[in-house]
Amino acid sequence: MLRRCIGVGSSNGTLSPAVAWHPAQPDQVAYTAACNVVLMHASTKEQIRVFRTKRHSTLSTLAFRPPSGQHIAAAEGDTSAAPAPEIFIWDTDTGKLVKTLKHHKHGIASLAYSQDGGWAHKACRSTLVLPCAALRHSWRGLLCTELSD
Predict the structure, then answer these.
(1) Domain annotation covers residue 142
(2) C-alpha torsion angle, residues 87, 98, 135, 141 (rounded to 10)
(3) Does residue 39 lie in a domain region?
(4) The domain that contains 99 carries what CATH number?
(5) Mind listing the pLDDT tens digit for each residue in 29-85?
(6) Of residues 137, 133, 70, 71, the one with CA closest to residue 104
């Protein structure tokens, strides 16, 4: 079991961690470290939890689900190491992976929830705007937006 991450980086050698502040805990911040997400106290730099994927692709973006921050979502941006990028959603209190959204055609460059936590958007490299059917029942109609180059 991975208990602590030291440093940031990615499996492909690039250094571009994503960072997100917890909406309900002002001292908590999360960042990507290769295929992991680290939640830590900003003031003490103590790591609270490490969220792991079972894949080896770099996580390119992350977002807390407001207003409570009960969930954190992270997405793969590098599609060269995986057949298709995925979005992972964890419970921030338990660390349990609660949902994996699969079958995304392009690497995901950006992910964000609306302020009420009811909608999320992703930005990729194509020209399609599609509703994510996988989320309609449990995540209230997540809208996936793919942007052109």
Answers:
(1) no
(2) -100
(3) yes
(4) 2.40.128.630
(5) 999 988 899 999 999 999 999 999 988 888 888 999 989 999 999 988 866 655 788
(6) 133
